[in-house]
Amino acid sequence: MRILVVCGAGASSTFVAQRVRRAAQQQGLGYTAFAGTEQSLPIDLDAADVVLIGPHLGHALTRIEKDAAYRGTTVVLLPDDIFQDLDGTRTLALVHGAVDGSGGIPSAAPSSADVSTKGTS
């Protein structure tokens, strides 16, 4: 599975992509995850099976979903607290939920990283 993480300038999406890639690798999954920007999205969509949209791009969700639908690409709007998912497991669960239809895990559910870093952020 090819996972594209999109944010405004590419900085935060790079961190999320690295974490998802590491979580997938630790689970023995041959997934790739890469970062993109809102501007590079029309080109990047062709290389993605799933697109994770940064929470600050919620205003563009309808447009992105429309563009992705032509390619059969799944789109997930990430919750506001996604950057607290330091090990990428919660984000990976959101990907699995979107792809298999279960909806992933609720945004309020802590990952192991959230629990271990509680009170440090």
UniProtKB/TrEMBL annotation:
Record keywords, A-Z: Kinase, Phosphoprotein, Phosphotransferase system, Sugar transport, Transferase, Transport
Pfam families, sorted: PTS_IIB
Chain positions found as Phosphocysteine: C7
Ranges for domain PTS EIIB type-3: 1-105
Protein name: PTS lactose transporter subunit IIB
Endoplasmic reticulum as UniProt keyword: no
Presence of keyword Transferase: yes
